[in-house]
């Protein structure tokens, strides 16, 4: 069977939603290229105390690919999050297992390979870079932030004008090969700068994407993110992404379902807003109902702020698959 090769760039919850839906199509060959700059929560310990690459987004991507009917118990074990103990609170058991495997094998890549074998995963999960790096954001007012955590916590209305990695690490050979071989590249949903562009800003990524024959698709976010995209509309997201990939987007998927006023207010109360479509005449924008009707409930012990309103895996997968197969041109 000739499979359509798709590279999914980003990581975290947004990419997991995309992966969970697309894995059900057996004629797709997925490569998940995971951002490696997360330095908050348990990843701070992984990076600072153990000198390892942040593993949380890798774990999420692997678990999103798992066939739950075969490995339900293993998946539950890997998602379990400790709620007590000063040393363990906030950590998932999956992260601790991955840390132990990496410590024993000496390689994050070998750990990923072994876990994919354990879960019988045929698709690929690839760190965008094999080196630890931090984000550096420059704002229009001349200020800067020097980590993902600082970007998320910065209370400013000034826009980010440039995002770089320090040190200026290079993309992994495996990531560049996946891009070169892909027919489609998926970006988003996810935090614009600290997830999506954090992966695109790795040295070599822009050149690889701009030189590839792959068609690039953006799944737009549902709401803005305080400290990153306050006041931005859909065209702002598109312009920023195109700046970092060096080519024109092929499609932009934007949710057009009705969002309850009560939910919008909960976002507005913390300074965030729904992303509005200001590209009404642009034929690349596909307006579809791709939002979930389920409210997100955080797991016990999860200290990080999470999105309440997310994309629906199955709805989004159907739209993306129709693009891959030429139904939406």
Report what the structure shows:
By secondary structure, the chain is of the alpha/beta class. Helix 9 (192-200) runs parallel beside helix 11. The protein is globular, with a radius of gyration of 19 Å. Helix 1 links the parallel strand 1 (4-10) and strand 2 (28-34). It has helices at 12-22, 42-50, 56-65, 68-79, 93-105, 108-118, 148-153, 173-181, 192-200, 205-211, 234-245, 261-268, 313-324; strands spanning 4-10, 28-34, 124-127, 134-139, 144-145, 160-166, 184-187, 215-219, 251-255, 285-288.
Which CATH-level-2 architecture?
A: 3-Layer(aba) Sandwich
Number of domains: 1
Distance between the termini: 23 Å
CATH class (first level) name: Alpha Beta
Strand runs, count: 10
Question: What's this, in brief?
Answer:
This protein is α/β, with parallel strands linked by helices. Helices cover 39% and strands 16% of the residues. The strands form two sheets. Strands 3-2-1-7-8-9-10 form a seven-stranded parallel sheet, with helices on both faces.
What's the helix and strand layout?
Elements: E1 4-10, H1 12-22, E2 28-34, H2 42-50, H3 56-65, H4 68-79, H5 93-105, H6 108-118, E3 124-127, E4 134-139, E5 144-145, H7 148-153, E6 160-166, H8 173-181, E7 184-187, H9 192-200, H10 205-211, E8 215-219, H11 234-245, E9 251-255, H12 261-268, E10 285-288, H13 313-324
Parallel strand pairs: 1-2, 1-7, 2-3, 7-8, 8-9, 9-10
Antiparallel strand pairs: 4-5, 4-6
Helix pairs in contact: 1-3, 1-13, 5-6, 8-10, 9-11
Can you tag this structure with a few keywords?
7-stranded parallel sheet, 329 residues, globular, Rossmann fold, single chain, alpha/beta
């Amino acid at each position: 069977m000739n499979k359509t090769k798709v590279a999914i760039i980003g990581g975290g919850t947004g990419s997991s939603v995309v992966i969970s839906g697309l894995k059900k199509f057996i004629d797709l060959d997925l490569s998940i290229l995971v951002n490696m700059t997360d330095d908050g929560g348990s990843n701070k310990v992984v990076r600072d105390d153990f000198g390892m690459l942040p593993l949380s987004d890798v774990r999420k991507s692997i678990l999103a690919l798992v066939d739950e009917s075969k490995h339900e118990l293993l998946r539950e074990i890997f998602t379990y999050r400790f709620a007590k103990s000063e040393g363990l609170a906030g950590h998932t058991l999956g992260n601790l297992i991955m840390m132990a495997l990496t410590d024993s094998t000496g390689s994050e890549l070998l750990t990923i390979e072994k876990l994919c074998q354990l879960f019988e995963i045929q698709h690929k999960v690839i760190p965008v870079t094999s080196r630890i790096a931090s984000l550096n954001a420059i704002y229009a007012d001349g200020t800067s932030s020097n980590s993902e955590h600082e970007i998320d916590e910065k209370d400013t209305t000034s826009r980010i004008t440039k995002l770089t990695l320090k040190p200026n690490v290079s993309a992994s050979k495996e990531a560049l090969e996946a891009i070169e071989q892909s027919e489609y590249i998926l970006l988003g949903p996810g935090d614009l700068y600290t997830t999506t562009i954090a992966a695109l800003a790795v040295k070599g990524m822009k050149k690889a994407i701009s030189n590839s024959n792959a068609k690039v698709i953006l799944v737009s976010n549902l709401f803005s993110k305080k400290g990153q995209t306050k006041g931005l509309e859909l065209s702002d997201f598109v312009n920023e992404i195109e700046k970092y990939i060096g080519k024109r987007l092929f499609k932009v998927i934007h949710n057009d379902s009705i969002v309850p006023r009560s939910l919008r207010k909960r976002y507005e109360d913390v300074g965030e807003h729904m992303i509005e479509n200001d590209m009404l005449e642009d034929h690349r924008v596909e307006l579809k109902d791709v939002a979930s009707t389920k409210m997100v409930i955080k797991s016990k012990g999860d200290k990080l702020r999470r999105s309440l309103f997310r994309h629906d895996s199955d709805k989004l997968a159907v739209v993306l698959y129709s693009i891959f197969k030429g139904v939406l041109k």
